[in-house]
Design a protein that fits this description.
The structure is a homodimer.
Chain A: E1 6-10, E2 13-14, H1 21-36, E3 44-47, H2 49-57, H3 64-81, E4 84-85, E5 91-92, E6 94-100, E7 110-114, H4 120-128, H5 131-148, H6 154-168, H7 178-196, H8 204-219, H9 222-230, E8 239-245, E9 256-261, E10 273-278, H10 282-287, E11 293-294, H11 298-301, H12 303-320, E12 324-331, E13 334-342, H13 347-359, H14 365-371, H15 378-381, E14 384-385, H16 387-392, E15 397-398, E16 400-403, E17 406-412, H17 415-423, E18 428-432, H18 440-445, E19 448-451, H19 459-467, E20 471-473, E21 479-481, E22 486-489, E23 492-495, E24 499-503, E25 508-510, E26 516-517, H20 520-525, H21 535-550, E27 554-558, H22 562-570, E28 576-580, H23 582-585, H24 591-620, H25 623-639, H26 641-668, E29 673-677, H27 690-702, H28 709-725, H29 737-742, H30 744-763, E30 769-774, H31 780-800, E31 809-814, H32 817-821, H33 823-829, E32 832-835, H34 837-845, H35 853-861, H36 878-892, E33 897-900, H37 908-916, E34 921-924, H38 929-946
Parallel strand pairs in A: 4-5, 17-18, 18-19, 19-20, 27-28, 27-34, 28-29, 29-30, 30-31, 31-32, 32-33, 33-34
Antiparallel strand pairs in A: 1-2, 1-3, 3-8, 6-7, 6-8, 9-10, 9-12, 10-11, 12-13, 14-26, 15-25, 16-20, 17-24, 21-22, 22-23, 24-25
Helix pairs in contact in A: 4-5, 5-7, 6-7, 13-14, 13-21, 14-21, 21-38, 22-26, 24-25, 24-26, 26-30, 27-28, 30-31, 31-33, 33-36, 37-38
């Protein structure tokens, strides 16, 4: 039996099938599959990759055997279509395309309308009744064939076309008439003759052989060879050639062409959706010259074709188990499907469709969970722009996408203005160089926040995410003149009150108002809308309910204040994975105490330490030695009296405030675990900026040293205090547990506040599960010492509150490499681990997130890094530290509870990784909780699939 | 046969031996060993640990069998010494000491003079002719015994002693006469009676039983138990009891006591060294009441004892193979050795002695190498203070020990003053807030450098080490008033010109001139002294020669300029492991070009990139598209003309300068490898400080916006440029290869300079081995791209220089955790690795070296960290990253050349680690090269010993 080199498809069946990519290439296998699925794709045949290899081996020719198989396939095609290649009345036209196993740049792509010649072009004209169309098709075919197959420089053709257009005084191609095109064809044929010393081939079989050979030749062109070398693709794979018959929707009123979706891709509603044009080409639908009709009207004009289209697309939806986006052509009442693929859809539609498909019995719950991109849920949680308006709007600048959502509003430049304008019912957008804790009231009323400096962890970014407020930060192109109340960007000036829009998911800034749609889900969650009133909320809940049944990972939220905790709980978080206690310090009524504490901390703590040490020595000492010690003690007590009073006094003031904060969190979280991190940021973050003080001081000095002597002295004192706390690299400085170790009274105060709050809430009947987390531990001794303080306070408080049940844990963040490297040692002291992947990424890469802007984007654009490692965990590098932490931690303490509370906790691909390495939970910002729930379910399903 | 519980030692032999620590405890085994070695130690006996266990089992008593063995041993002791316990004329006195296998806090330590009672104290008085001494010994015995054995609170005794002193109007104990002491004894006995209801035991055998039991009891006291629990020492180990006869050097003129060394511990000279007092106690020698005689004089007064002492100490030196520091007592013409141990010595002496001992046949070369602490060599390389003067000088403040050595000089506050004073022949010490590159000329002439701010990698520290100039940095206690030319510290004011001293090895600052001794070795190395003229240099060279024969690790130096390279080569470095090219940028005549380059870099590079991209597209384009591209290209060329000219122009100016630098290095290093790192620091380090510009601007503004409009505009422009480069965490910012990637022209210029220099030097006959090192690589793609540029330039230069032989390598620094974690991938592109352990420590711990001062010292003082991880590599944490880098790197590329060029490269304990993990070489600052050579040899010997 002879080898099969040519595989036919059409008339309801194909010689090949989808698993024959090696022989048929990707495209050929796909065409075979669609044909076998009963899809009316235009028929044709595939010449196999083996033929290509033979062609190369034979130095540029095929065996007679193959030529015969091709001829037979062509004859079959002609017979099936009832047309003949090159026929002067009703010609068969074909396309010729390459199709390797992998798609590959440098390969010949497509030749259309093959089969046209001086005779058949007249047949096409007659059949379509469109001479201009027929001639334009012919001149394009000559140009394409001339360039690709005959190797003639494009310039030659361009030159002739330009000349005819000039003569015809036509500005564009479409202004050329049939007569003009006849002249173009004549000139093109001359070009071919001049360049190849042969006439343009009129024999369609010669055209086909030439095109086919061109595909095979392109397999060995230098770009394709280089590409294969770079990507380790073997050279003997070969490419297939697909010859497929062309169909036309413009051959008369029994023809049409159109596009559609099986469901509404914007809303997900189960409606047949699309448009068509009768007696038209596909291009006409897209080009917008004629207005297409709604697809429902097709039923009236071509009921049979419409019925078949409905039947086929419904079948396709069942086959692909997803909404289909299809293109079709009806040629002489016969329906051909040109393309079908899973339809792109909005997040809203994705949820709607996935749930509907389950209810329609098309998908299982598990399959439905895999149909929705977790990230797409974001659209249900934040306002979104009206898509068409958004697409048209010019992007004036790009910042960092700090907090997703669409925001439009009048520009204001201060928090106070924001509040004033908002009070008058205006929607405002707060634009600042960078925000500070003092701006909170303005951020709260703004639609969105836009800053010129700062990174993804800047104040604006963190608070924006926390509030679920669209934010774009670090938009360096903005030139803000707060005095003049103007904003310069992209050569334009925006004044206060003028509207702009920001897209917090992309970082885009647009200098116009854009319509936004509100989020029903958010309205339900915030209590403004009854769940029963929102169909989409119900579907959303249903889908996430399935996710909850499926996932293994627990989901917690990062929340610092009761309001955020409430949102997180409503979104399905069952626990807080990170409460940053310092955010409570920033509240304005607390700042005076915080500042007082900080300024006194160094000497205050030193005094306390000295006194404690002297008292301990005194306890052992006798006689003269004791007397001397007593004297020394009195002196120290006197010397440090004021700083100790300031330090401990301020801590005492802060204690009840923190206690109230924690009590609020415990209440909102209804007995689920609440992880509270002890103070983390360097203390100077709470003080005025060093350079600001320096500038003030310089100004006062220049204005008169004597006149301003008192003010100068005061400023100098403050500057001195700030200087003492100044750090070159605050990220690597005196922060985290290093603070708690050198200033144990701060940890002590926080621990006391936590347990007093826990007791108070537990007494009222709400169970509490505090988990105290020590940040930035690199050495087990750090944890050991901080843990001792926490336990001391906890036991003291609990002893006093006899019998009130408070289970608590003390654990640590693993967020510097050394913590992960020595996780076995650290685990001995830890009751849980939580990975701080933000800092772990910063230290693992040696890369400050706030400073990386200058090169991280460059790195991504130039392919050095695939993804921003602060968005998606760098599994191959930083991920090793996480795995190491888990493995070593659990080796030392089997079953150790481990979570993650970095930004990555809400990133789907990172969640997949965290699932795989066996974490117990992920914690993310409240507005990402739904995303995390779905992603965790998908991770579980992916694991099941690979098991 | 009955079990032996009591082991006698004395009279030239012992029952036990040194391997019986389980039975005799550490001390008992040592006494047995010394006795067996023929050492005349005071005789005695050891009661075994088994007896202790029996004592515990029996609830506090010994078996009659053991009691009999003790009695027999005591009888033997009395007979050997010719004295009897409790004898009223010539009493035998003993000490009782505990002695477990491991020394342990909480255990009873020592009871002296046991055997004294009302009768025997008179015998002691008679024999010593010193009633005061006898009575004082007795009252001390009662007090010690009362407290330790009878459990009486010390306070009771203190109280009585104070009362007698008050009565006698004696300020100190020594003012008490024999009569006073008689009263103290009487009162003490009353205390014992009152507290125990028994008289103080007069029976010496009862005293002995009591003391012995007290030792056994102390084995089970809570502190000892806790200690054993914490240290995993089994409780059934038990403790032994050592009973040893006391000897007295004050029993007449046939008695003496003294201390000595077998060689001079200061210089190492082979001379018998020490002092003694006739008819005196050991205390008298130490207390300085009587002036002791040189030990040589002993030969005259007690020739036989002297002869024996010489003979014994010589034997001891052979036995312990080291200089001995001994204490002896001669009692009635009989010599007793009380203690002998290896003598402490200066670095100078250590080298001298080690070499001498080899030449005397006492040590092998390998043993000699282990006798010298590598760190001690530092003393041979830097001036040192005269030890006695140094010990007496008050330390006014402490900074970071940035560069070792002793420096004394007149304080100056500016580099210019330093030069001016030095020109007049004054020795100056440069004191600055912090130094900047502009200060180099002043640093060069100063004896030492002292700064108030900055860490161990600050400019002053790095340059100080580089120059071998004693430096103390970051001395926060200094208040420098540069205007008033004063320095406030520790409440004192130092004016310009007043002398202070700094110790660069400890960080101590002393407010006085101190005598220093010069370093002969340094004089030889710098060519001021002929090697033949310096005996110590010859010994130093000999020792290091042996080290070179032994070590496996290669030793290179970190050197940036030819002068440093020359010193490094002279000290034995065979290669440069790190040349920081940026240090060349800081030279003052280069700074204008550097600044120009930096200010233009961003737009200049962007222009070049755009032009390159357009040209590439143009090469493919035709017709109208080509025309449009040509137009665009012209526009871009015009727009970026100036920045490109500034950027590339400055680079062109810098090229020949760098080329000359590199040529100098290649010449000095005589064909050994020279590793050159491409530009590393963030560019803003080369620009004025942001806050300084802000202050200048504020001042000008306050003085009149209009008047200063031009200056303000100019400053604003500069500030804007600086702001653009500002970073929150420069350590984690736009530096290292990130610079070279975003500004490839800089790497290109440096590579060209390296290879042009290499060719120039090679042409003149000096072989060259450049190794180009790409810093801060965290991802293999970074290295790949930078390497491509280097190779491109190298090949271009070498192609032009046909046939000139230049072997080169391109490799990378592993200095961020991700580099180590993915070392297998990085190794595929690297021809060598060099660990940058400074940055690896910073990122591994998440700890900025410059900011760690606030807590790192606290951490060490409080035992959280044992050692400063920037001085000694943190083997258990950061060391894992190094091991990982080696293992993964060599797994991917077997035999990969790997070194280290962080500060740890010169730290002996780190070198041991680097040896163990299999590095090929270490690289350190030139002045640490000898230390590294020795440490590397010791590491090799340690490995041999453990193999």
């Amino acid at each position: 039996m002879s080898t099969q080199y040519v595989y036919f498809f059409g008339g309801g069946k194909a010689d090949g099938h989808r698993d024959m990519k090696d022989t048929l290439g990707g495209k050929g296998a796909g065409l075979a599959e669609m044909t076998n699925a009963g899809l009316p794709v235009p028929p044709g045949f595939t010449i196999s990759t083996q033929a290509c290899n033979l062609y190369q081996e034979r130095g540029g020719s095929l065996t007679p055997e193959i030529e015969e198989q091709i001829a037979a396939a062509l004859a079959k095609l002609e017979s099936l279509m009832g047309k003949k290649l090159g026929d002067a009345h009703d010609p068969l036209l074909v396309s010729v395309r390459s199709g390797a196993k992998f798609s590959m740049p440098g390969m010949m792509d497509t030749i259309l309308n093959l089969g046209l010649n001086d005779a058949s072009v007249e047949g096409l004209k007659a059949k379509t009744g469109n001479g201009r169309f027929a001639k334009d098709s012919y001149r394009r075919f000559i140009q394409m064939f001339g360039n690709v197959v005959l190797g003639i420089d494009k310039d030659h053709f361009e030159h002739e076309l330009t000349a005819v257009k000039k003569k015809a005084k036509a500005a564009t191609d479409v202004e050329l008439t049939e007569a003009h095109l006849d002249e173009v064809i004549a000139r093109y044929k001359k070009v071919v003759k001049a360049q190849t010393h042969h006439d343009f081939p009129q024999d369609p079989r010669a055209q086909l052989a030439g095109a086919r050979n061109a595909v095979f030749e392109s397999w060995m062109n230098p770009r394709a060879i280089t590409y294969r070398k770079l990507n380790d693709i073997p050279h003997d794979l070969g490419t297939a050639v697909n010859v497929q018959c062309m169909v036309f929707g413009n051959m008369g009123d029994d023809c049409a062409t159109g596009v559609g979706f099986t469901r509404n891709p914007s809303t997900g509603a189960p409606e047949f959706y699309g448009e068509f044009l009768q007696n038209a080409q596909g291009e006409d639908v897209v080009a917008g010259i004629r207005t297409p009709h709604p697809i429902a009207d097709l039923e009236k004009v071509m009921p049979e074709a419409y019925r078949k289209l409905r039947e086929i697309t419904t079948r396709l939806e069942h086959h692909y188990k997803d909404i289909q986006d299809f293109e079709f052509t009806i040629q002489e009442n016969e329906l051909f499907m040109l393309q079908t693929r899973n339809g792109k859809r909005t997040g809203l539609a994705a949820v709607h469709i996935a749930v509907d498909l389950v209810e329609e019995g098309i998908l299982t719950k598990e399959e439905a969970l895999l149909k929705v991109e977790p990230q797409a849920l974001d659209q249900l949680l934040h306002p979104i722009f009206e898509p068409k308006a958004r697409a048209k709007a010019a992007v004036a600048a790009k910042g960092l996408p700090a907090s997703p959502g669409a925001a439009t509003g009048a520009v204001v430049f201060t928090a106070d203005e924001a509040v004033a304008w908002a009070a008058k019912g205006k929607k405002v957008l707060l634009v600042r160089m960078e925000t500070v804790p003092d701006d909170i009231h303005g951020m709260n009323v703004a639609q969105g926040i836009l800053t010129a400096t700062g990174g993804m962890t800047s104040h604006a970014a963190v608070v924006g995410r926390q509030m679920g407020k669209p934010s774009v930060v670090g938009c360096g192109a903005l030139q803000i003149d707060a005095k003049a109340r103007t904003l310069k960007v992209a050569g334009k000036v925006v004044k206060e009150g003028e509207a702009i829009s920001i897209d917090g998911a992309t970082g885009d800034v647009m200098l116009q108002a854009l319509p936004t749609s509100p989020s029903e889900v958010l309205q339900v969650v915030s209590g403004q809308l009854k769940p029963a009133k929102s169909a989409i909320y119900q579907k959303f809940e249903k889908l996430l309910g399935w996710a909850d049944e499926t996932r293994r990972l627990g989901i917690r939220a990062n929340a610092d204040i009761p309001r955020d905790a409430k949102v997180a709980y409503a979104f399905g978080a069952r626990g807080i994975g990170l409460c940053r206690t310092e955010h409570m310090f920033f509240e304005s009524e607390r700042m005076p105490h915080v500042v007082k504490m900080i300024l006194a901390a160094s000497r205050g703590q030193r005094g306390l330490d000295l006194i404690a040490r002297l008292k301990a020595r005194l306890a052992d000492a006798k006689g003269a030695q004791a007397a001397a010690l007593r004297k020394e003690l009195a002196a120290v007590q006197k010397e440090y009296k004021q700083p100790i009073a300031d330090y401990t006094g301020a801590l005492k003031k802060l204690l009840p405030m923190q206690r109230a904060d924690f009590a609020g969190l415990f209440k909102e979280m209804k007995g689920t675990p609440v992880t509270i991190r002890t103070l983390d940021p360097p203390l100077h973050e709470f003080l005025p900026k060093r350079e600001e003080l320096m500038v003030q001081l310089a100004t006062l000095r220049a204005l008169g040293e004597k006149k301003n002597a008192r003010k100068i002295a005061d400023l100098q004192k403050r500057l001195h205090a700030v200087e003492e706390l100044h750090e070159f690299n605050p990220m690597l400085g005196h922060r985290g547990c290093r603070l708690g170790i050198t200033y144990p009274e701060i940890t002590r105060m926080q621990a006391r506040a936590i347990f007093e709050a826990a007791v108070a809430v537990a007494k009222k009947g709400t169970p509490v599960k505090p988990e105290v987390m020590i940040p930035l531990v690199g050495h087990v001794e750090e944890l050991k010492r901080q843990k001792a303080i926490v336990i001391e306070e906890a036991e003291a408080v609990l002893a006093k509150a006899k019998g009130v049940p408070v289970e608590y844990l003390v654990g640590t963040m693993i967020e510097v490499p050394r913590g992960a490297l020595t996780a076995d040692e650290v685990a001995k002291e830890a009751q849980f681990f939580s990975f701080g992947t933000n800092d772990l990424t910063q230290t693992g890469f040696g890369l400050s997130r706030d400073d990386a802007g200058k090169f991280l984007l460059y790195y991504q654009e130039h392919g050095i890094l695939e993804k921003d490692p602060f968005v998606s965990l760098d599994a191959s590098g930083v991920g090793q530290l996480v795995e190491m932490g888990v493995t070593k931690g659990r080796a030392a303490k089997p079953g150790l509870k481990i979570g993650v509370c970095g930004e990555h906790g809400g990133d789907p691909s990172s969640i997949q990784f965290f699932h795989k390495v066996g974490l117990d939970y992920v914690s993310c910002s409240p507005y990402r909780v739904p995303i995390a729930r779905l992603a965790a379910a998908q991770a579980q399903l992916a694991q099941r699939a690979s098991d």
